[in-house]
Design goal:
Elements lengths: L4 H11 L5 E12 L9 E17 L4 E6 L4 E6 L11 H14 L7 E7 L9 H17 L5 H16 L6 H8 L4 E6 L4 E6 L4 E6 L7 H22 L11 H6 L6 H25 L3 H19 L4 H11 L4 E7 L6 E6 L4 H15 L6 E5 L6 E3 L1
Parallel strand pairs: 3-5
Antiparallel strand pairs: 1-2, 1-12, 2-5, 2-6, 3-4, 6-7, 8-10, 8-11, 9-10
Helix pairs in contact: 2-3, 2-4, 3-4, 3-5, 4-5, 6-8, 8-9, 10-11
The structure holds alpha-D-galactopyranose (GLA).
The site of alpha-D-galactopyranose has 11 residues, from helix 5.
Length: 385
C-alpha cells in the first residue's frame, strides 16, 4: 500500500502554484519491547508501509499555509507567531517542530501545500510521530537544514511530547526516521544505536480496536512514574542502577519487600519484556516463527496482567487471533488503553483472521467495528524523488 504521489502533486496544483516537493514519514508497528523505551531498554519496531506525506513548496516569507486533505481543513500561521491551537490540533505538531528546530539554532522557511496520509489517525500505529517526522523532514528539506540524524529524532520527540503532554519514549520517532524496508530495528534506547534485523517471511496484521485512547495520556505518564520510582528503590540496594534496563528478575526479587506491589508488577513487566526483545531477535534470525509468536503472546499477558495497559477490546482481539490456525502469535501494541493489536501469521491465515474478527469482535465489543489490515516493514522518512 502506498500513497498516490501523482494524485498528491495534482492536489497541490489545485490549490497552489508551482511544483511541490514531497516529504514523507511512516507509521510504526512495534514487534516487541513495549513500554521498555523510556526505561533505557530495547525495542524491536518496524516502520510501516503506510505514511503521512507533505506536498509543499517554499515561500519567500515566514507564512505557513497548509491543507490537511484527510480532514478537509486549511490553516495559515506565521513561523514568527507559534501560538498553539487547542490541544491535539494538527498544526501544533508542525509549530512545535519548527520551534524545536529554531531553538536549536536552525532557521526555517515559510511554506505552503497539502498533506495526506493513509495511516489510521489515532489507530495505535503512531500517526502523530509520522506526522511530526514528516513535518521535520519538510522543514529541514525546504530550508536545506542538516541536523545530525539522532539529534533530529530527539528534536521530533521533544516537539511531539510538548504538543501532546505525553512523556513518550523515543521508539516511534526513531522508527519513523530510520526504518528500513523488510527489516525491523533493534534499538538500544540508552545509546540510541540500532541494528537492522531481517524479518523472515511472515505476514503482519494490524487490527485496530477503534477504542479511543482517552486514558492513554494519564495512564502512560503514571506507568512511567511507577517505573522511575521502582528503579530508584532498586538503586538503593544496587547503586549502579540508573533505569530498569539495569535490573534483572533476581535483583527485583531481592527488593520485593521494599517495593509497593503495583510498582513491583510494573517493574516485572519491563524487565521480562526487555529480555524478550533479545530472545525475539535470536529466534527471528533463526527463522523460528513459532517461538517468535510465543514471545508475542507472553508479551501480551505481561502487558495485560502486570503492566495494566490492555483493555477489554484489545484482549478480545488478541484472544480471537490466538485461536486462528496459522497465527504464530498476537499482542496489543503501543501505549495501550485502546489502539490496535498485531498478529504475526502465515500469509494464508490473513483471510481467516479477518473473518474471525468480523464474526466475533462485534459480539464481544458491539460498540466498535475493528479495522483489520496487513502491513509490511517499509522505509523511514525522506523526500520522495
Ligand atoms: C507510545 C510511546 C512510545 C512507547 C510506546 C510503548 O507509543 O510513544 O515511546 O513508549 O507507547 O511501548
Amino acid at each position: 500500500m502506498a500513497l498516490d504521489y501523482a494524485a498528491l502533486r495534482a492536489e497541490f496544483r489545485q490549490h497552489f502554484s508551482g511544483q511541490p516537493r514531497l516529504f514523507r514519514a511512516p507509521g510504526r508497528v512495534n514487534l516487541i519491547g513495549e513500554h521498555t523505551d523510556y526505561n533505557d531498554g530495547y525495542v524491536l519496531p518496524a516502520a510501516m508501509d503506510r505514511e503521512v506525506c507533505f506536498a509543499v513548496a517554499p515561500r519567500a516569507d515566514r507564512q505557513v499555509r497548509l491543507r490537511a486533505l484527510n480532514l478537509d481543513q486549511q490553516e495559515t500561521f506565521s513561523l514568527d507567531q507559534l501560538a498553539w491551537q487547542p490541544k491535539a490540533h494538527w498544526t501544533n505538531y508542525i509549530k512545535s517542530m519548527a520551534h524545536q528546530l529554531e531553538a536549536e539554532g536552525y532557521r526555517c522557511v515559510g511554506f505552503e501545500g497539502v498533506i495526506r496520509g493513509d495511516l489510521p489517525i489515532g489507530g495505535g500505529v503512531s500517526s502523530s510521530s509520522a506526522f511530526t517526522a514528516a513535518a521535520a523532514t519538510a522543514l529541514c528539506g525546504l530550508a536545506d537544514l542538516k541536523p545530525d540524524e539522532t539529534r533530529l529524532v530527539q528534536l521530533i520527540l521533544a516537539a511531539e511530547n510538548a504538543a501532546t503532554g505525553l512523556r513518550g519514549g523515543i521508539m516511534d520517532q526513531y522508527t519513523a526516521c530510520r526504518g528500513r524496508r523488510d527489516r525491523a530495528l533493534l534499538i538500544d534506547c540508552r545509546t540510541l544505536a540500532h541494528r537492522l534485523v531481517t524479518l523472515p517471511p511472515m505476514t503482519l496484521v494490524v487490527a485496530d480496536s477503534k477504542k479511543d485512547r482517552s486514558l492513554a495520556e494519564s495512564g502512560y505518564n503514571e506507568r512511567r512514574g511507577q517505573c522511575e520510582a521502582g528503579a530508584k528503590v532498586i538503586a538503593g540496594r544496587y547503586p549502579w542502577v540508573r533505569a530498569l534496563r539495569d535490573v534483572n528478575l533476581d535483583m527485583l526479587a531481592a527488593c520485593r519487600g521494599e517495593l509497593d506491589e503495583i510498582v513491583y508488577r510494573r517493574c516485572r513487566h519491563v524487565i521480562a519484556e526487555n529480555a524478550r526483545v533479545g530472545q525475539a531477535v535470536s529466534v527471528l534470525e533463526q527463522g523460528d516463527l513459532h517461538a517468535f509468536g510465543l514471545l508475542l503472546n507472553l508479551s501480551h499477558v505481561s502487558l495485560r496482567d502486570d503492566y495494566g495497559v490492555s483493555c477489554t477490546e484489545l484482549d478480545a482481539l488478541v484472544e480471537i487471533a490466538w485461536q486462528v490456525p496459522g497465527v504464530y502469535g498476537a499482542r496489543m501494541v503501543g501505549a495501550g488503553f485502546g489502539g490496535c493489536i498485531l498478529a504475526a501469521c502465515e500469509a494464508s491465515a490473513v483471510e481467516l483472521l479477518q473473518a474471525a474478527i468480523a464474526a466475533q469482535y462485534p459480539q464481544r465489543c458491539p460498540q466498535f467495528a475493528a479495522e483489520v489490515y496487513a502491513t509490511s516493514a517499509g522505509d523511514g522518512a525522506g523526500e520522495v524523488l
